[in-house]
Amino acid sequence: MDNGPLTLYSANSKTGIPIGTIHRHFGQLSKSGKIRVYESKKKGRKKIGYGPTVYGIIKAYKQDREFAEKIENYFLIWIENKEFQKDLEKEGFDITIGNLKKSKHVFRKFLEYFSAVEEQIEKIRRGDDSTSRDIQVLFGSMMLSSDTHYQKLWAELYDQLPGIQKYLDEYMESMIKSYKEFKKHSREHNLKTK
After folding, report:
1. Concatenated DSSP letters for 15-84?
2. pLDDT, tens digit, 9 for 90 and up, residues 132-156
3. Are 48 and 29 contacting, i.e. CB atoms less than 8 angstroms apart?
4. Which segments of the chain have a pLDDT < 50?
5. Which fold has domain 1-52?
């Protein structure tokens, strides 16, 4: 993280770990979405430079205290890279360089929030009882929401089952109330910072 994109060979020279082991780990990290190819040079021996994804940084932020303490420095190193900027833009960041440099503190907050989200996802995957059945059903329903077959079934069930109507209506009203509170706090925060 202290330098730009890392190749297998630069990782080998810095760590002394065999290239095959590094290649395997880079493959696993790439497959899991934690790193990706940032650059590929075709002249001579093919050099592939790998760098972090925002998802990879979120995971490392939660797992490594030393990494988390240096995150703003890492942010300033990596924002110079166009591939990292593309990832940030997908996450909603304003990627004009002037705004990116100001965003390092926002990035820390972003990582703190989304690393907590990732922790909740891990709890669900492990089957921890802390996630209520209602929330699990909600997640499952959201995952099916783009499938027209299940959209139609859900609409029919909503029309035919008063309990589902009540549950969904209460949930949506709760979400609307939460969203209004969120907007209120956001406006108050914006007024304080101006």
Report:
1. H---HHHHHHHHHHHHHTTSEEEEEEE-SSS-EEEEEE-HHHHHHHHHH-HHHHHTHHHHHHHHTTSHHH
2. 777 777 888 888 988 999 989 988 8
3. no
4. none
5. Arc Repressor Mutant, subunit A (1.10.10)
